[in-house]
């Protein structure tokens, strides 16, 4: 970020801080910052008429196929009673996926199942391109984390004695989904951002499951700890101020969810610019893809944002990564990720020396949507390495949705 834009960002943060008591601005500013998906303003959106912007959104929503893929639905009940929604895409019944094979030195019955875990304020549809590429070639499970997508609100996060969500709880949720959707056979686990942290929590709590069944892992734009040190591309003073006041403000806003949601809707144009700034790095992301990301993030209620936020500063799963030492690992991130910087992915690879480290040029936090061909290619290579698909398999081309930056 240039000095000029840094000053502008600091001024914007200062102005926002002075108006957080106004529900409209609070809903946009806090909801987006806490979602970890935005921290700038798309000026061009503020110079176009409101009616025109609304028509453009409707047109993009109607034209974009993103998030339209569906599989066989299922529901599992978490240990606290929360209903967790998942979908399964089965392989084609043509013998293309062997029913029994030796995978990475392990003899495991049944077809490989690739399980995708999404990030904070997203849902299973964030893997749209990878899901489309792998359909019919390998069995996949896509699930919505608690309080996201089609899963139910966290049971422990409701009522007078509500408990903040923990990453450990998400690890147990993933175990519940595995027991229901893939109770046997080899597994490849894929996690983006919070989803990667969920995979680490699973490993920490169920190391034997990893040793016995997991044959490959992909960590995409995630972190094993030290998230409290991330500056989101903002000046030091601004970041420190946000860290001091944000937890308390989130708690307050989470208790006035309906009022704040009205504020977020009223400032939708600012919200959209913020999302684009921190979701993508590329100069010219497909507008339909940007709108797709916007829909997912803006669909996360402010009280859910508040429930999950504390878990990230407490997250520390560096030791848990050791469970994956004998498993092929892909560690991938965008080089301009301001939410979970690529240095965090490099730290994961440093703890797993045999991991394949891929830093995608001109890639932001939602790298799997911004540069889907790169992500799908490296994921397909991982599946070939562990024997989940044949080296001759053509996963198709799902090209980049963006033009490279200047």
Automatic annotation (TrEMBL):
The chain crosses the membrane at residues 23-43. InterPro entries: AB_hydrolase, AB_hydrolase_1, AB_hydrolase_fold. The keyword Transmembrane applies. One of its GO terms (molecular function) is hydrolase activity. Keywords: Hydrolase, Membrane, Transmembrane, Transmembrane helix. It comes from the Bacteria. The keyword Hydrolase applies. Gene3D superfamilies: alpha/beta hydrolase. Residues 113-372 form the AB hydrolase-1 domain. This is Alpha/beta hydrolase. It comes from Streptomyces ficellus. The lineage of its organism: Bacteria, Bacillati, Actinomycetota, Actinomycetes, Kitasatosporales.
């Amino acid at each position: 970020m240039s000095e000029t834009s840094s000053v502008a960002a600091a001024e914007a943060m200062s102005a926002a801080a002075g108006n957080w008591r106004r529900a409209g601005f609070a809903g946009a500013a806090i909801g987006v910052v806490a979602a970890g998906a935005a921290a700038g303003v798309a000026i061009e959106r503020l110079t176009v008429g409101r009616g025109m912007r609304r028509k453009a959104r409707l047109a993009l929503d109607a034209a974009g196929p993103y998030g339209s893929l569906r599989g066989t639905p299922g529901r599992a009940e978490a240990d606290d009673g929360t209903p967790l929604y998942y979908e399964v895409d089965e392989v084609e019944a043509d013998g293309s996926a062997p029913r029994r094979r030796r995978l990475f030195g392990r003899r495991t019955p049944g077809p490989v199942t690739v399980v995708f875990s999404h990030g904070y304020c997203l849902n299973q549809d964030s893997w749209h391109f990878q899901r489309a590429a792998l359909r019919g070639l390998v069995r996949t499970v896509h699930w919505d984390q608690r309080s996201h997508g089609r899963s139910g609100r966290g049971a422990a996060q409701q009522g007078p004695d509500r408990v903040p969500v923990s990453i450990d709880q998400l690890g147990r949720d993933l175990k519940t989904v595995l027991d229901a959707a893939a109770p046997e056979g080899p597994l490849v686990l894929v996690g983006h951002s919070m989803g990667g942290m969920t995979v680490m929590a699973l490993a920490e709590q169920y190391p034997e499951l990893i040793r016995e069944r997991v044959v490959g892992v992909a960590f995409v734009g995630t972190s094993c700890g030290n998230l409290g040190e991330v500056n989101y591309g903002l000046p030091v003073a601004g970041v420190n101020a946000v860290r001091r006041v944000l937890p308390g403000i989130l708690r307050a806003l989470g208790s006035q969810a309906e009022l704040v949601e009205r504020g977020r809707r009223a400032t939708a144009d600012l919200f959209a610019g913020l999302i684009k700034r921190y979701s993508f790095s590329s100069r010219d992301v497909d507008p339909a893809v940007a709108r797709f990301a916007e829909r997912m993030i803006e669909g996360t209620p402010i009280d859910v944002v508040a429930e999950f936020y504390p878990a990230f500063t407490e997250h520390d799963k560096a030791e848990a990564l050791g469970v994956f030492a004998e498993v092929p690992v892909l560690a991938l991130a965008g080089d301009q990720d301001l939410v979970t910087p690529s240095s965090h992915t490099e730290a994961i690879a440093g703890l797993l020396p045999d991991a394949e480290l891929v830093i995608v040029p001109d890639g932001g936090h939602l790298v799997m949507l911004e540069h889907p061909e790169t992500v799908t290619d490296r994921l397909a290579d991982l599946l070939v390495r562990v024997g989940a698909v044949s080296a001759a398999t053509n996963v198709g081309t799902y090209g980049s949705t963006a033009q490279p930056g200047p």
